[in-house]
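Course assignment 3, question 2. Fill in each field.
Student: A.L.
Task: Predict the tertiary structure for the chain below.
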Amino acid sequence: MADRSTHIVGVVGGSASGKGTVVRRLLDHYGVRAAVLRMDDYYRPIGEVPRDGEGEPNFDVPGALALERLARDLDQLKAGRDLHIQSYTFNQPGIEPEPLHIPAVPLVFLDGLFMLHDEGVRSRLDLSVLVHATPERRLARRMVRDQAERSLTPDIIQYQWDRHVRPGDLTYLEPVQHLADVVVDNDRDVPIDLTPALTAIDTLLND
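Answer field:
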């Protein structure tokens, strides 16, 4: 008989690799059996986020996130208890945090950057899926996304990429990406083939 406990499936990848797209498709596929918890909602208050050499906040280091709190919340889900947290607004003016309810359903997808780097979070994953895309393609996507969704200028986006995102990739993501259980490719202008991920998740649910 399938296990009725909550399984945590990490969906990891560099900024703008397509994690959100993969998670949306997985949520559509598994329906009421699945929910999502986003690591973005665990960013620390802006005054606690580490700064770079120019004094700008750097969201692309593990210290920007409350990872110990995330690990405790993952334990709560795995114990079958729903989560109630607040959304993170990325300091956009006029945007208020929203209450978020993450139910302890059979599958909870954790969407974020540093889950393989941080042992406390990694040890709570039942499966990890790496979304791969080249840095060049990711930068192009980030340019579009951050202007539309976060009201950033191209100069600021390039600054963050050069000073924060790529150094973070090289330090905290690429050295541990081999730890992922499954890799899906999102480096082409074609729909992502999720077959390897779906096979692994189905196996997890049916064990």
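Instructor remarks: The domain at 7-196 is CATH 3.40.50.300 (Rossmann fold). The chain has one domain: 7-196.
Grade: pending
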